[in-house]
Amino acid sequence: MRTALVIGTGLIGTSAALALAGRGVRVHLVDHDAAQARTAAALGAGTDEAPEGPVDLAVVAVPPAHTAAALAEAMKAGRARGYLDVASVKGGPRRELERLGVDLSAYIGTHPMSGKETSGPLAATADLFEGRPWVLTPTPGTDTEVLNLALELVALCRAVPVVMDADAHDRAVALVSHTPQLVSSLVAARLEAADDTAVRLCGQGIRDVTRIAASDPRMWVDILAANPGPVADVLAEVAADLDETVRALRALHTGDATERRGAARGVEGVLRRGNAGRARVPGKHGAAPAAYETVAVLISDQPGELARIFADAGRIGVNIEDVRIEHATGQQAGVVQLMVEPAAAQVLGAALRERGWALRP
User: Fold this and answer.
1) Same domain flag for 41 and 153
2) Which parts of the sequence belong to the Prephenate/arogenate dehydrogenase domain (predicted)?
């Protein structure tokens, strides 16, 4: 691939353009908002000048509701040898293209499973897709050259290709992406009218659950409107569990001894099913999640403190597998939770104490 056209310079389009441009591909940028395309170009994602002729690959990175129309327009104009989109739903755009009578041999639907709660070109990074799954949904009619171009794009973005059926993909993302967004927003909505005293008690748990609730509502309305059936199916199952859990909690509050014992078993069952489901979430490098131990270190909110603690861990020879930061309410301090292999936890804790760090039990 030597040339590419990115249509839509939001977070995903600009991030893909940055990755391609950084690896020597000449990238042309276009957006319905010319200022946004200029911003992406200024960030080094390519040029907002139109290509002189057809490019090797056109990447359509517009909202799902506009994906099929943008693809059809580009394909009818002959703007590239191959075309793909990065919309978060796949079945709908493909069927719409079929209704529009477009030759689908030059097209492949794709979806990079990566993003942020922030949007726009200024949020883009060239490493956004590194190590992340990138779904490809070829059909029997997809041209081999187009599939190879898509695989080259995934490789240049350092993502991991995953081949799926389009409708199977849509059911999968309803479960692992679209429903979690709604559930996160529903929990966060409880905070809107909450008493200030309650909100001041927010800790890492509520921050984790509500992080993606900061996402752009307009963007998510577009995504959910393109995949409503599968999302509704998953939400219905969640609602059934919620109804049962509410009844169990009511029984714990007002029931007799026998009812309370049954209710407790019901609540425990939901929690254990949650344990089992969480254990299936892939960990590092896509493998089964490892059982790390946590070393909690008190840290001041001063420049360079995080770098110093990571440097100390490196000198000790301990690899930090994951990290969380919990800020202390109303204080210029917090707790850094360092996740390490169980065998390294005691060594790391002792060495950090020797270097003057205060550890929290």
Assistant:
1) yes
2) 2-282
Ranges assigned E (strand) in 225-360:
293-300, 322-327, 333-340, 358-360
305: CATH: 3.30.70.260
Query: Is pTM beyond 0.90 here?
Result: no
Q: What is the Cα Rg of the chain in Å?
A: 24
At CB < 8 A and 24+ separation, what contacts does 38-44 make?
A: 39/9, 39/121, 39/122, 40/6, 40/9, 40/13, 40/14, 40/121, 40/124, 43/14, 43/18, 43/121, 43/122, 43/124, 44/18
Residue-wise pLDDT tens digits, 232-270? 999 999 999 999 999 999 999 999 999 999 999 999 999
Q: Give residue 17's Cα distance to chain centre.
A: 18
Q: Are residues 160 and 175 in the same domain?
A: no
Q: Which domain holds residue 59?
A: 3-164
Q: H helices within the chain, ranges in order?
A: 11-22, 34-42, 64-76, 91-99, 144-156, 166-173, 179-192, 196-199, 204-210, 217-225, 228-254, 257-279, 305-316, 342-354
Q: What is the Cα–Cα distance from 182 to 188, expressed in whole angstroms?
A: 10
Per the DSSP assignment, residues forming a β-bridge with 326 are 335
Query: Residue 337 phi/psi, 5° resolution?
Result: -100, 110
Give 5's strand partners: 28, 58
Q: Quote the tokens at residue 212.
A: 């993606």
Q: What is the pLDDT of residues 133-180, one digit of tens each?
A: 999 999 999 999 999 999 999 999 999 999 999 999 999 999 999 999
Contact 67, 85 (CB under 8 A): yes
